[in-house]
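note to self — DONT lose this again. spent like an hour looking for the file last time. sequence + predicted structure for the chain T wanted, 309 res
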Amino acid sequence: MLAEPIRRRVVAAATGPFSHAPYPLAHSLDHRGDPGLFGPDSVTWRVMGDVATIVGGIRALLIQAAHPEVVAGVADHSSYRTDPMGRLSRTSAYVTATAYGAMPEVEAAVAAVRRAHRGVAGRSHRDRPYAATDPPLAAWVHNTLTDSFLVAHQAFGAEPLTSEEADRFVAEQTRLGALLGAAPLPEDAASLGAWVAEHPEVEPSPGMTEAVGFLCDPPLGRGPRQGYRILLEAAVATIPARIRRVLGRPRRRGAVAVGRVAVAGLRWALGYSPSWHLALVRVGAPVPEGRFRAPLPEGAVGATGRPTA
């Protein structure tokens, strides 16, 4: 079929940037029956399985950069300039492990983040101390990620959530936030959205200017760069107006509509997350027919040590 070579190119372009770290659920089938932090009946598995999470991830990184102390920690301690694909892949692996992993995999991912954060401390450009272990700063990172995944799903997901389901998603995510030591953790969608949009610490900073500049022009090839820019503008269009002004990124007309088309194209090429598929197999839950286009993740093994795919 003529469409198949196109699909393969889209898959390669979309997944390549996330392939620079080990797959975090390679031994997930050693934990048969373990639902992890959320489980097959959760809203989290549905939200995180849709490709709209890519837009959500971009949105979260932009919003996170609007907090001077958080972005100072990134500027002073992150490897995103020298190893951008490795940094992106490790972040993606953390999201995958905490969403779909069995509890030992969730705990290992959280422990790795907490170890990495122990040495992240200093002072921001406005001479305020920061530490990644500070509950309010951890809350900014966690809550903006939760809010961004939710907002992106509602704008670009194949199956938008009801208001009750949106509240369930936010409440589920507080379990992960608590493991990270984040506080406060709003427990419903409206409270979370207001907490992010009205956060009093948001203001421009040198670290923000650098981070946003990088996010708007990452080191991608020509083809992936064009697709990324569409997703970037779609993400920007969903950011609260106050934070967009701080970031210096205007909302482009038609960005949401174009973003929906682009995300639908990615969904056609990629299907839903193979890690969701793997988690369903691990717990013995029904696997919806036709939902997953990719095979089970390459290298995932069960207790026998034999690959699943």
